[in-house]
Specification:
By secondary structure, the chain is mainly alpha-helical. It is built from 18 helices and 4 strands. 43% of the residues lie in helices and 2% in strands.
Length: 429
């Protein structure tokens, strides 16, 4: 373990040495199909829980711990936080998302961030009712006991990339941060917009981590049966299994870590990031449907095909969806976005219960639709040409459907006419 931690690579290089897809640490290690923020760090119990984990303490908690946890508000003021509030702050979530986008531009760490989110959520067991024992998206992957699982080899580098953001945004839970990073990475790589919600509560200690063995193997004896055993346990179906497999369009496998793939290929020898590994697709930082096309054709020896990849075109039920996705990227994107959102919510406890939806900015009400009759009188319906003429005249004097006239224009007309009538009468006499 100590040898694993003696990392001296800069962030960019470190990210890429770990940005293999969802691969095992050894040839029999566990792997996710396409796997490659948790109670607020303002929560005292969560902070204590981190401190009890030697690995995370060494890597991420270099600062001195204080018995009082403070949260910096948007106004720059500091207030004492209490453990009872576990929900993430919407404004901090938006800011964290913007920072993740910048991180992706400089580190090209899309695959490993996707893998982190998937591996945190992918331990869910629908047959267990208690939280957090049922696993799922609860931020438990940050603890050493789960980080040491074979399927999570190299994910320590993903945590190292995100910890500065967690320190900066103490009002964002680890569980939310992991899922935010994963969804943002998909979108920034050219993939679909994921209908995400946030407000996940964090698991609080290593004793709440799931046992090893809940993630898929890379090369099981019966790939189709194995995939169904694992993903049916999560409550997912065949269509979702195949759609989620499409995330393998991103990333690389490194044999020294997973036991699978070539040391390098013509597509990976020059990076970006640390060179090497074997990718599933030619453009392994672009999210599209090329994974299905390349697996189907299998014409390029420099592209990786795992047993769990090949079976998508061998099993009758899987093949129906794989063929469709190879031909129709729009359908793949739609199904993938739905499946990713479902996976990211598995096992999560939300505060508030309905979750938090973040947008790019404050929502604005739509302007009132123009109705010509509203600016006219009488019961007779106006023709379309008359409506257009009235609207043009109305807008010409500064009015619009969502902006009233600065003064009562029609009243002013009446007053002017009255004044002119009086003057005409005087001059006429």
């Amino acid at each position: 373990m100590a040898e694993r931690l003696s990392l001296t690579l800069p962030p960019t290089m470190a990210a890429f040495t770990a940005s293999s897809r969802i691969l095992p640490a050894a040839s029999r290690a566990r792997v996710s199909l396409a796997y490659s923020p948790s109670s607020s760090s303002a929560s005292l119990s969560s902070l204590k829980c981190l401190g009890s984990t030697p690995l995370v303490s060494r890597l991420f908690l270099n600062q001195k711990r204080s018995p009082v946890v403070r949260v910096v508000s948007e106004r720059g003021l500091s207030a004492v936080a209490t453990p009872k509030c576990a929900a993430s702050d919407p404004d901090q979530l938006r800011s964290a998302r913007a920072d993740i986008k910048e991180l992706l531009k400089t580190n090209f760490c899309h695959p490993i961030l996707i893998r982190l989110g998937w591996h945190d959520a992918g331990t869910y067991n629908k047959n267990i009712q208690e939280w957090p024992q049922k696993g799922g998206a609860n931020g438990s992957l940050r603890f050493e006991v789960e980080l040491k699982h074979a399927a999570n080899a190299g994910l320590v580098n993903a945590l190292k990339l995100l910890q500065p953001l967690k320190d900066k945004y103490s009002g964002v839970t680890y569980a939310d941060l992991f899922q935010l990073a994963s969804a943002t990475a998909i979108e920034e790589a050219g993939g679909p917009k994921i209908p995400m919600k946030y407000g996940r509560v964090d698991a609080t200690g290593p004793t709440e981590c799931p046992e090893e063995g809940r993630l898929p193997d890379a090369g099981p004896p019966s790939p189709a049966d194995h995939l169904r055993d694992v993903f049916y346990r999560m409550g997912l179906n065949d269509k979702e299994i195949v759609a989620l497999s499409g995330a393998h369009t991103l990333g690389r496998s490194r044999p020294e870590r997973s036991g699978w793939g070539k040391p390098e290929t013509k597509y990976t020898k020059d990076g970006p990031g640390a060179p090497g590994g074997q990718s599933w697709t030619v453009q392994w930082l672009k999210f599209d449907n090329s994974y299905f096309k390349d697996i189907k054709e299998r014409r390029d020896e420099d592209l990786l095909v795992l047993p769990t990849d090949a079976v998508l075109f061998e099993d009758a039920s899987f093949k129906e969806y794989a063929e469709k996705y190879a031909e129709d990227q729009e359908t793949f994107f739609k199904d993938y976005a739905e499946a990713h959102a479902k996976l990211s919510n598995l096992g999560a406890k939300f505060d508030p219960p309905e979750g938090i939806v973040i947008n790019d900015g404050p929502s604005e009400s739509a302007p009132e639709k123009f109705v010509a009759a509203k600016y006219s009188s009488g019961k007779r319906e106006l023709s379309d040409s008359m409506k257009q003429k009235i609207r043009a005249e109305y807008e010409a004097i500064g009015g619009s459907p969502d902006k009233p006239l600065p003064t009562n224009y029609f009243l002013n007309i009446i007053i002017v006419i009255a004044v002119l009538a009086v003057l005409s009468s005087l001059f006429g006499n």
